[in-house]
Backbone:
């Protein structure tokens, strides 16, 4: 009927099915956190009506997400792929669901207790899958299968399941089995391995100078393990592997996607690009051409094209002029539909989503307890005086791990330590003196409890410089004012600081940064009372 | 049947109906912001099943609130009063709904354009009522009818509709008519007038030393106006009025509630206490006795008793021993049921709550535009250099008006000003030198854009001391580094600073602190581009 007006409308609709666009998990446009990247509802709805087949969601609480996924599905004329980067429990991104310690915590545990670590990884997957499904997500963009053998890696780091291939592979496989047993799809990423880089592909294109043999030994095994475990999808990495393809990054490389992944590793599931909007791709190839090259190379799905309509037009043009084989598209569409068809019936979201069920809360606590370090007891300031709760974080505004009732604030306050935030967006406490880097007069009087929220690259807080924490701790020690030190996140920073702290100094570490981890560490250091029940750790 | 086991079970249930308990608007216990004050779901559900008749909600986004009100109603065996302190639009407390400039902004506008101010106050009420109803609230705890004739008032301030009785009364009445026309109940507060105090009843009991004649001239007229407009409820104040009752605070005084309010002012609607948990009451009379005294004095409903079960037991005992007349309780129950029966049918909440409809967004913009001051154009730092965006707020963690994409941050960043937060919980930038109070070396190089988020008592940021903003601005002027000054909130601080700023210095003020106000002020000062659409001010 309308074929006369739009001769390739059917083709455009088919192409649209292969796109995954980004949207806020909030219902209202006014609530978008990143309006540059998150489509407004009017445009989002128009794209879904035009056949766009997937949405990646970020932002909003768990109950909002449940409403949002129903809304999106109601706008689309077909079953949607609804996904999110929930690598550390659904609560990592959507408040109200379970927020679990980062995977690398289990990677470390695996060294001392492999059986327990494997069991916990499987439960980690089940918890994530169950909660994702309850909120209307059907695709979890995890596990990270990168081997974090470079502690300076700014983007992978504690998101990885291990620092060696065997650990990462075994745990990623266990996670995948648990996750997919709950009726959602998983996604192994970032193929063929993003662990050994020290630059950030959001900004530039990392190069992996490794030989094919080295890839076989280090990078590929966790992907083989996840594929053997039946993982439904694999996400490509934006990095260059000259040993396999001298011209194109992995995301756009036929040698990597069709050669290595499909033929050599025998992967028959969905291949999805990492976000094409990232500078390493979009800045280099352009919004439309990047999407064409990814499909040519063997990707099935295009994640976050910089401009969805431009991508559809460019792909349709490439089919029309013979650069892209129509059969490739049909195969990808078929793979996508088959993946969706294998899932349980839609509509599992409840009116009152049953969040953080008792079993999930128990798991979250168990994971914190099993991966915690704490020694000594923090001495509160003498009665009638107060101390300083020096909290280091990347950015003070809207830190998800520091709600108003965060134990790192409230438990310390009950003990007499008043908060003093130090972040890239606060006034600086640094003196410029390398021997005495903290301007102590800016902190106020009394003993200082230091709580460092650091992930990714240790010591690299604000873009410009390195924060001199070892010297700062020595300075506080020398002044007799260091009451205790806690690191939330990086095991590398914790390892480094432990070497310089006296044996008797109260110190603790959790790989997690969330309230539950804060409460457990501070309880472990002798702080906290019954009313710390806020975080749910005491009952 | 069960009378043998619990002879006064019926009485207890009747009493429970008169309580309004506090709960988080979030669905999950883990998300409570104030777990000390917000009941856990298990206890909340048990109380509702025992007949508790009302809940006051705080926290959570608008979509969460819609789920939450349905959940609470489903737990109760009777229609509930579901209320919230949404005095400045529902978006003030529940993200995603409309957040309006504080009432005093219209009070000031009323001086120059009374007709416009009255029209906007009526629309303000309609917007609030419509959105509250859509989210399942049926009782809005507004308007504030206090006359803010004391700029140092720490608790009322910009929440009031005026600084004189005629303005406050006219606007509060217009608001009430708009609000209740949308099918929700209003509540005039805090009777008989909380505007002329400079201490905080959350902490201590303020004393109003005024004569009856002065009350008649200043404090009472806005309440008379709201009552004439048909306001459904009146909330009592926790303050002492020796001229009327030498012994008891207004909340517990028969002379104030039965004598002045019911008999003299002829109010026949619901009388509700302010939160009994506040120190001025709970600390002085005890949790159970305070509730008994409030009902004895003539209150119908008891808001936030410190311990709901204790309150029920104490009230039942007072009826049993004759201290409290059973007829009083029956009359209050009757009044409560009649108020609920007069409302539209329950169940208006939609599955996808239609938030911030176009008319409401237009109103929010209109209110900002009509109450804005801005003069001059801020000069961005020279190309290749940067400046400082010095933001003063009470507390950096989880400031609701500063989401990650807040225009006060993002628009200034686009112009080259990097954020530097200064709050009670950040490192201090104060030097201690009264002539040069800012430690400029801590702020970094370049011109400084100063944005002050101040409400309530100007200059009283952290508990300890006064912040020397006039001297700090003179210091920056003297150093040739003051790029501009913005005040969000207090008109009193704005008035004071204007006197010291040179005529040519870019400066602006909005009574609102929300993103929409930030965007409008900064646009007015020549900052901001198309991508500032985040806040919805540009389309």
Residues:
């Amino acid at each position: 009927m309308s074929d006369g007006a739009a001769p390739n409308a059917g083709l455009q609709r088919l192409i649209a099915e292969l796109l995954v666009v980004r949207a806020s998990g909030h219902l209202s446009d006014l609530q978008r956190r990143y309006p540059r990247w998150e489509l407004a509802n009017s445009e989002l709805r128009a794209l879904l009506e035009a056949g766009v087949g997937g949405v990646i969601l970020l932002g909003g609480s768990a109950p909002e997400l449940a409403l949002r996924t129903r809304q999106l599905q109601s706008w689309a004329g077909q079953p949607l792929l609804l996904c999110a980067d929930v690598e550390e429990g659904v609560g990592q991104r959507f408040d109200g669901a379970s927020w679990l310690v980062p995977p690398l915590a289990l990677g470390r545990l695996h060294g001392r207790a492999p059986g327990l670590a494997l069991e916990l990884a499987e439960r980690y997957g089940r918890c994530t899958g169950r909660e994702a499904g309850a909120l209307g997500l059907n695709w979890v963009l995890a596990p990270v299968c990168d081997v974090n053998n470079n502690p300076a890696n700014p983007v992978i780091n504690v998101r990885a399941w291990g620092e060696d291939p065997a650990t990462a592979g075994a745990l990623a496989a266990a996670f995948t089995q648990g996750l997919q047993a709950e009726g959602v799809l998983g996604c192994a990423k970032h193929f063929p391995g993003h662990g050994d880089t020290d630059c950030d592909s959001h900004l530039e294109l990392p190069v992996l100078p490794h030989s094919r043999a080295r890839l076989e030994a280090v990078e590929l095994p966790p992907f083989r393990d996840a594929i053997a475990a039946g993982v439904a999808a694999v996400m490509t990495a934006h990095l260059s592997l000259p040993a396999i393809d001298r011209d194109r990054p992995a995301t756009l490389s036929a040698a990597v996607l069709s050669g290595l992944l499909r033929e050599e590793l025998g992967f028959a599931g969905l291949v999805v690009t990492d976000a094409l909007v990232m500078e390493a791709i979009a800045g280099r190839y352009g919004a439309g051409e990047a999407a064409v090259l990814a499909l040519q190379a063997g990707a099935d799905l295009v994640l976050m094209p910089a401009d969805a309509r431009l991508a559809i037009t460019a792909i349709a043009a490439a089919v029309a002029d013979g650069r892209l084989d129509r059969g490739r598209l049909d195969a990808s569409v078929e793979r996508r539909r088959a993946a969706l068809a294998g899932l349980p019936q839609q509509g599992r979201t409840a009116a009152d989503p049953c969040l953080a069920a008792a079993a999930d809360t128990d798991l979250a606590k168990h994971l914190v307890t099993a991966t915690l370090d704490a020694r000594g007891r923090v001495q509160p300031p003498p009665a009638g005086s107060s101390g300083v709760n020096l909290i280091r974080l990347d950015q003070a505004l809207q830190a998800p791990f520091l709600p108003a009732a965060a134990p790192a604030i409230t438990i310390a306050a009950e003990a007499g330590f008043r908060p003093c935030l130090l972040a890239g967006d606060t006034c600086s406490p640094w003196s410029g003196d390398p021997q005495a880097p903290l301007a102590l007069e800016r902190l106020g009087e009394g003993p200082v409890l230091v709580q460092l929220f650091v992930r990714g690259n240790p010591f690299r807080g604000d873009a410009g410089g390195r924060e001199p924490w070892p010297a700062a701790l020595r300075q506080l020690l020398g002044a007799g004012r260091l009451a205790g030190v806690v690191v939330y996140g990086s095991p590398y920073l914790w390892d480094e600081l432990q070497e310089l702290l006296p044996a008797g100094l109260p110190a603790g570490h959790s790989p997690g940064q969330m309230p539950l981890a804060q409460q457990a560490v501070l309880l472990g250091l002798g702080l906290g009372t019954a009313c710390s029940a806020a975080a749910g750790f005491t009952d």
Chain A has 18 helices and 14 strands. Chain A has two domains: 9-341, 372-535.
